[in-house]
Amino acid sequence: MPVITSDIDPDYNALVENDSGAGGDFPWEQAATETHVLDHVLKPPTHGGGGGGGGGGGTTFPTQASDTQPGPTFDTNATINKNYFIPPDSTSAAGKEAILVGVNGVIEEFDRTAGVDTLTPHALGFALDDVFKSATGFLGSAFDPHIMYDPTSDRFIVVAVDQNATNKTSQLLVAVSNNGTPHGAADFHAVAIDANAGGGSWADFPQVGLDSSGHIYITANMFAFSGGSYTGTHLWVEDESNLSASVAGATVPSTGTDDFFSAAPTYDPHGTGEFLVSYNSATDPVTGDNVLHVVQVNPNGSLGTEQTVDLKAKIDQLTTFGGISVPQPGTSHTLDGDDSRTSLAVMQGGHLYVAATILPTTGLDAGHATAHWFELGVDASGNVTLLNQGDVSGNTAFSGSGLRTFYPSVAVSTDATGNDELAISFSTSAPQTGTNYDGFPSAYEETIDPATGASTLGWQLLEGGLANYTRTFGTHDNRWGDYSSISTDPLHPGQYWAFNQFAETQGTSLMGETGRWATELGLFS
Q1: Which of 230, 281, 351, 506 has CA 20 to 30 A from 420's CA?
Q2: What average pLDDT does range 243-252 have in this prediction?
């Protein structure tokens, strides 16, 4: 019998779409109680895995990314670190000499050929745990990785967390590469920071930001070891050139208990303004409009005054901490779409961009999981206002498809006229598959003019799903995500490298389940 170990990851009130048949409606309903699920690690058995499974066919896809490269998979992950992981938590960053991708358990580096976009995988990959092995006191089981690149220093930053529920210990893990081509774990310097807030809480879902001075801003949600309740969000600020294990975490102040749940620090490698931004489907008690919460951060960790940004409408059917479930073809098993938390905010030229998953209140995608982007303006005094927002609409891209879009991430560059261009990476799934779209869990990208909200190139395919996906390790929670990634090419403005998961053909039977995730890296322009 395989041995299951787990890194706890809380989930909240499940918002589910009830499958009423292919092509039918999927009304949503709110579950009554809070539940807790796990980031799962499964030790592989000593014998081989199971056989293959079903796949799609006969589908004509939209334009596909160029120079695509396969990344870690459900099976290669287990080969490298001796564990199976769900969900993968796809993360990546594009550098000048290399591109680094990662999932729960594995990091892989792709060398870039000088002057062209051709990539060469350096090796199969190396274990995520090995990146932090040199850190004093490392507990030994890193999870929830995030990768970022500093174009000024030509170094990669890897952040993760670790915890031991038995000993009630929790760590924030930070590693910085020695150069722009980290071929292995030995090319990183790492520290493990005690993240156990007062002995009673542990850190989960870290997010990372960067300013032009090499300050690394890291946030994490804190949960009580006893009972699992959310106890607040913490912020740490590290110096990229002088990592310290003694950096103290500070609770992000807020007027409400959950205003800054999953607060995303901004990636601003060419500027000096740093902000935390959070969306969790909250509404203004007077207007009923949904709101974003934003606060400015200083390099010493101090924070400015919390700002509440009114979104001018009730855009979201979700309630605070409401969970999202997504249908897929050929099965009643839905994908866990998590909740409406923000992931990776980007600052450029006084504009702040971020995305989240919502259930729109109106329009073609009403009640369906839909990626939604926000553009905020930031003035010289740090005041934040809403400039524009919009949906990544599955039913607009493919009429009547019922495609859900979820787990969005954003990158920003400038177009030929010098205006901002917004690129969004996201996952998709639908109740059925069609002749011009893939209904199985897939990975797409869309480029948008944020000033008008118009799609400039339409959807582009990173990789289409090959089967439906069920992999719970016996927990009844079919984890997907928990995020995707996309980054601007530092050598070529207007080009983007996206990295995300898709559903591979079924196989590797464990505990009666055969769903397998795989990942893909691709170039969009």
Answers
A1: 281
A2: 88
